[in-house]
Structure formats: C-alpha cells, structure tokens
Write a structure and sequence with these properties.
By secondary structure, the protein is an alpha+beta fold. It folds into 2 domains: 71 residues, 3-Layer(aba) Sandwich (Rossmann fold), CATH 3.40.50; 33 residues, no CATH class. Helix content is 15%, strand content 32%. The chain has 2 helices and 5 strands; from the N terminus they run E-E-H-E-E-E-H. The strands form 2 sheets. The protein has a 3-stranded mixed β-sheet, with no helix packed on it. Strand 1 and strand 2 form a beta hairpin. It starts with 18 loop residues before the first strand and ends with a helix.
C-alpha cells in the first residue's frame, strides 16, 4: 500500500515498536501492529492517542487489541489465505470510507 502511494523507502514491520510513521503522496501515515499491545495503560503511556489528531492516515493490524481506544475504522480490509492465492474483502464503515472506495 505504501509503495502504491509512492513511498520508495524501506517498509519496516512495527511488530516491536508498535508504530512506524511514513509520509507518502502528501499524507502522514502511521502503520500500527498492535499484536504486542497488552492493555490501555501501555497505549496511554506510549502517547498513541495523540496520533489520532485528524491529520494522520492509519493502517492498523490487530485493531481488536485496542478496542475502545481507537475510533471506528473508515475502511476495513480482511485478508484470507486460500490454497491458491489470497482473498481480500474491503468494507467501508463510514461516509468517509465510502468516498475513498468510490474514488479508487
């Protein structure tokens, strides 16, 4: 996704840092991997709430680990590994999400 937006650098997994920031296509992007998130105190101590300031675009893996801490996703993408290939289902949850899907 980042490469499709024009990001030419190395894309790192945020498995241990929980978040990696990027800039591409004039957007401030944040890639969260919340698999290792343990509780709300850890979320607050890391200052992640400040990232949700209305200016950033988020890609969030394991969003259920931050249930109640993050706003509803505009768009959700669910991946399924098939015997041959993969399947991706894309759902718009908000008006903004619907506008984005219509634009692509």
């Amino acid at each position: 996704m980042l490469n499709a937006l024009g990001y030419a650098g190395r894309v790192k997994s945020p498995t241990y840092t929980l978040v990696e920031p990027y800039q591409a296509a004039g957007l401030d992007l944040r890639h969260f991997d919340l698999y290792r998130l343990h509780d709300e105190e850890e979320w607050e101590a890391a200052g992640f709430r400040d990232e949700f300031d209305g200016r950033n675009v988020f890609f969030i893996e394991w969003p259920e680990k931050a249930h109640g801490l993050i706003p509803q996703a505009d768009i959700e993408i669910a991946f399924e590994i098939l015997e041959q290939g993969r399947n991706a289902e894309i759902h718009a949850n908000t008006g903004t999400g619907k506008q984005c899907l219509e634009a692509i």
